[in-house]
Every structure is written in C-alpha cells, then in structure tokens.
Write a sequence for this structure.
C-alpha cells in the first residue's frame, strides 16, 4: 500500500557512486596503456578467438559493471523523484529538472571538452589520437557541443573526453523520461514493460536484418552502426532503476521483502562478483546485469539489516566528488602517460612506470575533483535550490 512517507534521502548511494568512479578509473588506466601500445590488463573485445587471464576480464568488467551501477542508480533516483513530484504537485516540471541537470553537469562537461579539444593535443604527445582528432575535428566538436558524445563512439576516441559517452546516454534519456513518467504514471509498470519490449524488439530486428545485407555493403554498414548505437544506448538499465523506484514508491511490500531477503541479496552479490571473471555477451545481458545491480543498490541503501553501510561522512563527501572524478580522470591519465612515455620509463622500469602512472593519475584526479567541486561546481550548484519542486 502506497503511503505519503516518501523517502527524502537514500543513505549509502553517494559512497556507492564514488566506488563506481574508482572502478572506472582502474578500467581506463589499463585501457590507456593499451591505446598507447604498452602492455596492459585491458582487453579489446573486438579480437575474436583470443583468451586472456582472469585478471584481464576483471579489469575490463569492473568498468562495465560500474557503468551499470551509474545507469541503474540514475534511473532509480530520478524516477522516484518524479513519482513523488507527481504525487505532491500533480505535475512534473520538465523545465526545472533540465535546468537542475544542466547546473550539475554542463559546466564540468564543457570545461573538460574544451580542454580536450583545444589544449590537450598541444601539450602532450598521444600519437595517432592527435591526428584522428584533427581529421574529425568538425564532426567531434559538433557531437560534443550538442551533448551527443555517445555518437563519438563511431569515431576514434577523443583523448580526455571519451568517457562522456555515458553522460550523453543519460542526458538523452532524461529529455523524455519526465514526460513519460507524467503521462503514464497511472500505468507506469505497463509502460516500463512496453518500453523494454520495444528496445529489445528493435535490437532483435537489426540483429536479424543486418547479416542479410551482404550484397548491399553500404546499407549493411549503416544497419551495423545503428545496431551498435542502439546497444550502446543502454537506457534499459535506467528503466530497470525506474521499476525499482516504482515498487518502492508504491510500497509493494511482498516484492521489497523478497529483494531484502538475505538469500536473495547474498545470491545476487555472488552472481555480481562471478560476472567479473567471464566475458559474457547475449542480447538482454544489459537488462540482466541491471536487475543484479538494482537489487544490490536497494539493499545497500534501504535494507537496515544489510551487512555493511556506505553511509559515512567521508564516503558521502567523496560521493560529491564522483562526477568530477569521472570527468577529470581521463585528462590526468592522458597527461601522465604522455610524460612517462616521453622519458621512456615504461621501457626502462616497467614496475616504477605503473606505480607512478597509477599514483600520479589518481592523485591528480582527486585534487582536480576537490578543487572543481569547491571553487567551480559549487558556484552553479547553489542555484539548483531555486529550481526544486519537492
């Protein structure tokens, strides 16, 4: 039975954000070594028939699983907020929500993008990436300028800003999600099911059609790129977060008790950890991993009998830095690896190279995140209160 005791604060989720950001950092650190032709623990999944040690799968998968947490967490929190707003005010202010999102994300996003496009290529040696950016500069600047960085995945990575593809997916999702929640609030679960069926129906259609176009290579390439972008547009994970938010909002106690059951969340945690050691691909895997993540998220935040708490002062503070960490860390990685490779440290002392690469990049990312949050982001965040509805 739904009550009016709406949740105002979800404990532990700030800490979870920061942990996810750190996992992404480890993933991208090894990925940058791979891009620079340095021995790494990052794997290129596009190489068929290649087997790797378990640690390689772990390094690759922790980044992907962290992104799942970000996506599911975003869908969960904003959907719950919209449902509460609709219940309290009988409306959802699309304009105010977009302004709040812009104040939180746009200043840092465009600051990093400007640095990646106009400064970074001139101060470091990142080989073919500089040349790729010169060749695709107009396309890339338009894509990033219009907040469509996920489209950039069809081109070579923009060093220092490639991580923003996931921000693009979220922002595009958020353009329509407030409207969807408002229009279908009375039939929200049916809407979510239909939404997921439509998403995967389109994927299955493209998977079936694309191989049939061998005699039309241009059209096949277009369909292949459409399929890639649709699979990259993993809004189903945000929709999974929306399902959890609806169950919580409506007070579906039977379902919540199942989610909080020790057997369930222990089993889910085991599955989550196990998935880190395998290279798994199947249509619907993103949905499956989304449900795994949402069970863990709800237990970490809402289950008072859960085995540990992430709701501490230091983790809450670090959680506030998580977007800065996510935004700035690839700039720090690119600069650090350029400096270390220019002095050929990776050739003369590989152990020291790795120690310095990790420690300097992480330290620089944290310092930038702290300074940014305190002296740059704070200026914009103080205006968010003016645009809050609930």
């Amino acid at each position: 039975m739904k009550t009016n005791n709406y949740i105002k604060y979800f404990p532990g989720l700030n800490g979870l954000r920061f942990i996810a950001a750190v996992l992404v950092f480890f993933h991208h650190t090894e990925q940058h070594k791979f891009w620079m032709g340095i021995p790494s623990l990052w794997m290129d999944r596009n190489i068929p028939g290649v087997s790797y040690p378990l640690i390689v799968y772990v390094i690759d998968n922790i980044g992907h699983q962290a992104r799942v947490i970000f996506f599911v967490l975003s869908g969960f929190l904003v959907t719950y907020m919209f449902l509460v707003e609709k219940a309290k005010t009988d409306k959802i202010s699309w304009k105010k929500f977009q302004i709040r999102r812009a104040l939180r994300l746009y200043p840092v996003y465009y600051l990093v993008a400007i640095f990646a496009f106009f400064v970074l290529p001139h101060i470091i040696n990142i080989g073919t990436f500089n040349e790729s950016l010169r060749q695709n500069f107009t396309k890339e600047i338009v894509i990033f300028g219009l907040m469509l960085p996920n489209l950039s995945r069809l081109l070579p990575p923009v060093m220092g800003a490639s991580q923003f593809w996931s921000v693009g997916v979220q922002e595009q999702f958020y353009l329509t999600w407030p409207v969807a929640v408002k229009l279908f609030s009375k039939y929200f679960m049916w809407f979510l099911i239909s939404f997921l069926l439509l998403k995967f129906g389109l994927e299955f259609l493209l998977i079936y059609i694309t191989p049939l176009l061998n005699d039309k290579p241009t059209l096949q390439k277009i369909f292949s790129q459409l399929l890639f972008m649709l699979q990259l547009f993993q809004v189903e994970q945000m929709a999974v977060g929306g399902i959890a938010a609806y169950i919580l909002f409506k007070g579906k106690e039977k379902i919540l008790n199942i989610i909080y059951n020790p057997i369930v969340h222990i089993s889910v945690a085991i599955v989550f950890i196990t998935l880190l050691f395998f290279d798994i691909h199947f249509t619907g895997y993103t949905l499956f991993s989304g449900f795994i993540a949402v069970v863990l998220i709800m237990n970490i935040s809402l289950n008072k009998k859960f085995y540990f708490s992430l709701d501490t002062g230091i983790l809450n503070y670090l959680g506030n830095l998580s977007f800065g960490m996510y935004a700035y860390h690839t700039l720090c990685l690119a600069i650090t690896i350029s400096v270390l490779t220019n002095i050929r440290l990776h050739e003369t002392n590989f152990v020291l190279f790795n120690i310095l690469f990790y420690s300097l990049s992480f330290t620089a990312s944290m310092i930038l995140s702290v300074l940014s949050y305190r002296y740059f982001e704070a200026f914009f965040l103080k205006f968010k209160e003016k645009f809050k509805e609930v």
Observations:
- Residues 13-387 form one domain.
- The chain has a mean pLDDT of 91.
- The chain has one domain: 13-387.
